Amino acid sequence: MSFAKINDDILRTLRPPGRLYYVGLLVTITAFLIGVLAFLYQARTGLGVAGYEHPILWGIYITNFVFWVGIAHSGTLISAGLFLFRARWRTAVARAAEAMTVFAVATAGLFPIIHIGRPWFFYWLIPYPNERQLWVNFRSPLVWDLFAISTYLTVSVMFLYLGLMPDMAAARDKVGDWRRHVYRVLALGWLGTDRQWRHYIALYGFFAALATPLVVSVHSIVSWDFAMSILPGWHSTIFAPYFVAGAIFSGIAMVITLLLPMRRIFKLEGYITVHHFENLAKLMLTTSLIVGYAYLTEFFVAWYSGNPFEQGTFYDRMFGQYWVYSWTMFTCNVLLPLLLFSKAIRTNLKALFVISIFVNVGMWLERYVIIVSSLSHDFDPANWAGVYQPTWVEAAITIGAFGLFFTLFLLFIKNFPAVSITEMKETMDRSAEADPASAWPEPV
Amino acid sequence: MAKTVEILGIYDRGKTAAACARVILEEDLGKVVAFSPVPDHALDQALHVAVSPVRLFVLIGGLLGCAFGFAFQIYTVLDWPMITGGKPLISIPAFVVIAFELTILFAAIGGMASFLFLAGLPRLTGRAAPDARFTNDMTGLSVTCAPEQAAAVRACLERAGADEIRG
Asked: What's the fold here for domain A3-126+138-421?
């Protein structure tokens, strides 16, 4: 394995794709357009077309919001958190995970706008001097959210771009067609001089050090959207760590779901190996155990509190009208991942892919259960009869969000190096220096 | 300004290039600019003594973000005093969240801006790298020196095992 081979192998992914890629793109774009049409219909007709019914005034849109913010988290954890811990295996998966972060946050950011009655006034959330002479309420977690999500998006984009800069220079110097002009502009004139690398390395370290606490804060703030209210099922001090662990859990599942087909399509088996997937599976198992512990703690605290409303909510969650969702969630997020204790399953990529899909489903349902079942069982028994039924509009917009996310991801991996060329070379350099016998393995 | 020549040595690996760069600087033969496809610590140590000042701008950005975060929130509640949630107007614990986010945001922006400035980017016009292989698999040393030093520089580049010497 040489630098030149890494360069060629990874830049090969930028060549014109096969039929499978275009079929995938067609499906995702169609899904996205379905969502756009449903949203236009909702914007024209009014929020009544969503299935909200008192007291359940947060539904699938907020579920999607929390879900997508959660998906974003593992990207930052892998690219920044593991960088700080010097876990070198992250190199192969970091780029895809970082890109996923950016697209997931962008998708998540749409949902609060879709959820409000007059989406064209969403900018009222932004504090700016205005003719109403009003300021937003800075004590509200919803405003915290605005700052958290926009900071997260900005920092993730800069982090992704910083890592891409030397790679786009490599593409500029290698790709022969018209796209080299695009890479030339995007690489901002990167030359790879000692001066540039010196500042680059310094900044990369700082970005990692800034992004790691940021990622913890963002999902903590999302959890406070719920925990700051007094609703049973929401008002809990464990929500922040519980949500952060859940976010990383779901995000890693999504990384596995995306990387397995990607490495197949681009024939990157030599770079993204079973070893990487096994490490991801271990992280997924760890976070699954934390999430499972949090579930059980919630139930214990509800029982131990002696508070009838708290107890009622949690009893209703498991045995009330939303019991199917709760039990499915528990199975997908706590029981199924236990299989990953077996090395044979961790290293079986098909099994891993199936488990990751179940975890995605389970984590989406977790947010649904927390939001809908808690709202439906508040302090007033007269409210308990209502059942929230998502409408076709909500379903279509959800599908559209998945379409948008996958479309952006597919476009990204075809037009930008899907694995970090620079870091791959660096890893090879280091492992060869440390122990020439254990240099980076040749692709199989 | 005295006349100078530019000599380019191309290496397979950065390590030997670093040794050569060190000698050129120690013997004051000329100015060295290194090109490499990956960050190279040996080269970095040979060519630079001081740490990158990016850290300073990250710190300044972070402090400004924190100060702005608190100041802005406090200004708005004083500009239109409205009690919500039974909390005092200036409720610092609730303001910590946004101040923290802005600390990170400003620190990141400060770091990015200083990086671009210090690295001389964006740089869309002007000379390209002397060889396209420097983003692929080769390391280069470009030495600018007085014509009378050129022979010594060439000898040094060659002694360190340059695959190719130009200029």
From this structure: Formate dehydrogenase/DMSO reductase fold (1.20.1630)
